[in-house]
Specification:
It is a single chain. This protein is of the alpha+beta class. 46% of the residues lie in helices and 11% in strands. It is built from five helices and four strands. The protein has helices at residues 2-6, 19-26, 33-41, 62-76, 116-146; strands spanning 79-80, 87-93, 96-99, 105-107. It is elongated.
């Protein structure tokens, strides 16, 4: 048991509990917690350029990390709800989005609320409805003129 007091814990596992590090944790710390948090707040940002992809380090190549960054930022972003107007829609699972304002579930894309093909289909349906309504109005006008 006495050898534990002599042996210094490795620096990489100071936060992880082990028999050797417990001895040092019980000792009185010279640095107060306030000094610790002050030092942490003055540290620089580590992932200024890479952002959310800092977790990958130098692996997988720059272009793949940029693509993943775009997907993950859009996946974790909040979107405006088309029903209540609040910016409260967050992704719950793949393709399932929930508004925290009105508790509505919306089916959408895997990474974004609306995908480009879905917007194209919506615009086409809207245009065709407009054409159909315009054609039916002109037909009704002709029938009224005949009477």
């Amino acid at each position: 048991f006495f050898f534990l007091m002599i042996r210094r814990p490795p620096r990489s596992t100071q936060g992880v509990s082990s028999a050797a590090s417990d001895v040092y944790k019980r000792q009185v710390s010279t640095q107060s917690t306030w000094d610790y948090y002050l030092a942490r707040s003055q540290m620089g940002k580590r992932t200024h350029k890479v952002g959310i992809c800092g977790k990958f380090g130098t692996r997988y190549g720059a272009s793949l990390r940029k693509m993943i960054k775009k997907f993950e930022e859009s996946q974790h972003a909040r979107y405006t709800c088309p029903f209540c107007g609040k910016t409260a829609i967050k992704r719950q699972a793949v393709g399932i989005w929930k508004c925290r304002g009105c508790n509505k579930l919306i089916a959408g894309g895997a990474w974004e609320l609306t995908t480009a093909p879905a917007l194209a289909v919506k615009a086409t349906v809207h245009r065709l409805k407009k054409v159909k309504l315009g054609a039916s109005k002109t037909k009704e006008d002709k029938e009224q003129k005949n009477y």
